[in-house]
Write the structure tokens for this entry.
Amino acid sequence: MRNKFFKYTILFAFFLAIFVSLFHNNYKHAEYSIMDALQIEHKQEQEDTLILVAGVGDIMMGTTYPRNVLPPDDGQYIFEDVKEYLADADVAFGNLEGPFLNEGGIPKRGKDSSSAHIVAFRMPERYAAYLKNAGFDIVS
């Protein structure tokens, strides 16, 4: 009887060792798969939360005071070379150096009050559409 018990114990231990070995290996693979999935999901979340901002400064598309100094073709192609970069941005921000006015405004002398140079920064109102068509979202 003792010999039979010993034989069953060894057989049970052998199968238990095989079972644990198989389970342990599968668990490790499952653990790596879960970790890989979590990392992929985290990376996707990071990509989804990144925001690309394009910032442009000192936009002056021409002036109509004291005389017309406007770009060729009335400025309609002024942003053609940078349009693709603005389109790639989630937010395109520009610093506008003057107002859109067809007429009016307050002319100002340069820093030297005795200067004969008088300026009134103003761009034709129709030029606002050029900013929009170029891809700007915000201008200041």
Notes: Strands lie at 53-59, 91-96, 108-109, 118-119, 138-139.
